[in-house]
Write a structure and sequence with these properties.
Blueprint: H1 2-44, H2 72-76
């Protein structure tokens, strides 16, 4: 009788640890969802303006070729 109670207690403790880990993961995901919802609400606001990114101009090199791997023939020379 006591063995059954101890086994049941061990099962309860193991499931409690698993549940605690699961609750921790759920809380982390819920906070991420909360921040995403705040961003979405900010975007849906009528006064929201899209900020355009400024692109840097390409660096001009003397050869006029773009960056990349040299040809095999040029590497052999």
């Amino acid at each position: 009788m006591a063995t059954n109670d101890l086994n049941k207690l061990q099962e309860i403790l193991n499931s409690a640890e698993d549940n605690h880990a699961l609750l921790t993961r759920i809380r982390k995901q819920a906070s991420k969802i909360n921040s995403m919802m705040e961003e979405l609400n900010a975007m849906l606001d009528p006064s929201y303006k899209i900020e355009k990114k400024e692109r840097k101009p390409r660096a001009a090199n003397g050869t006029g070729k773009g960056p990349g791997r040299p040809r095999k023939n040029a590497a052999a020379e």
